[in-house]
Amino acid sequence: MKIATYNVNGVNGRLPVLLRWLEESKPDVVCLQELKAPQEKFPLQAIQDAGYHAIWHGQKSWNGVAILSRHEMPQEVCRALPGDPEDEHSRYIEATVNGLVIGCLYLPNGNPAPGPKFDYKLRWFERLTQHAATLLASGQPVILTGDYNVMPTERDVYKPERWVDDALFRPETREAFHRLLGQGWTDAIRKLYPEETIYTFWDYFRNAFGRNAGLRIDHFLLSPALSQRLNWAGVDKDVRGWEKSSDHAPVWITLA
């Protein structure tokens, strides 16, 4: 089974890129972030014509997450991260698909830091960590994937000295990510490629993609049972170079 995550940075504006990638890559399950579309503007017909079922949680102008499946319809579990009923951001959706529990997430950016946005990021991270513990305790095969907006180590960022004060790389952010991993989750990319320089995001400015000045901020975390089934993973870096593409590239894993 091939599962992918892709921050599309606007599902309607990037729809030709998304459809081309779906046709070429043919993942079984896809988690999308940053739909930037209200619920009623999600391009369901185009997604269905491409051969996918979909559930989604949209939001006008920003945020928004979705889960697509080539096979069975995803069975929605929830469309908000527990712990804050007043949080109206569309940043989390969870479903069962093909026997797996899949949480698709778009963690807050948090800049400028310090400040209210950074505080919200850390609170959201704590809620995610609490929910992740519950998912692990269930004993089910679970994937938590999406745009985490965190570079876990210096290996995951081009010129880390330039990012020391950024919300994506501050010590509090990295510590939160490592606390989450410490519950027993496996970082799929790092399990297979522990020493390699791998990026999933390249800014639009200063020819970042051409210089390979990137960040690894899109992650797959696997529960213990699924970690044993992991047999391959990668980043479709070439997609980032397509015309009118997102500043993220799709990331994928395959499970036995």
Number of strands: 14
Report the end-to-end length measured between terminal Cα atoms.
7 Å
What structural class do the secondary elements suggest? Answer: alpha+beta
Could you give the order of the helices and strands?
Answer: EHEHEEEEEHEHEHEHEEHEHE
- The rounded Rg comes to 17 Å
Biggest sheet overview: 6 strands, mixed
CATH architecture: 4-Layer Sandwich
**Count of separate structural domains:** 1
Beta fraction: 25-35%
Domain Endonuclease/exonuclease/phosphatase: 4-248
Site (Important for catalytic activity): 218
Binding site for Mg(2+): 7, 34, 147, 149, 247-248
Site (Transition state stabilizer): 149
Please give a structural write-up.
With 256 residues, this protein is an alpha+beta fold. It has one domain: Endonuclease/exonuclease/phosphatase (Deoxyribonuclease I, Chain A), CATH 3.60.10. 26% of the residues lie in helices and 26% in strands. The strands form 3 sheets. The chain has a 6-stranded mixed β-sheet with strand order 3-4-2-1-14-13. Strands 5-6-7-8-12-9 form a 6-stranded mixed β-sheet. A two-stranded antiparallel ribbon has the order 10-11. α3 links the parallel β7 and β8.
Features:
256 residues; 14 strands; six-stranded mixed β-sheet; AP_endonuclease_F1_BS; Deoxyribonuclease I, Chain A; 8 helices
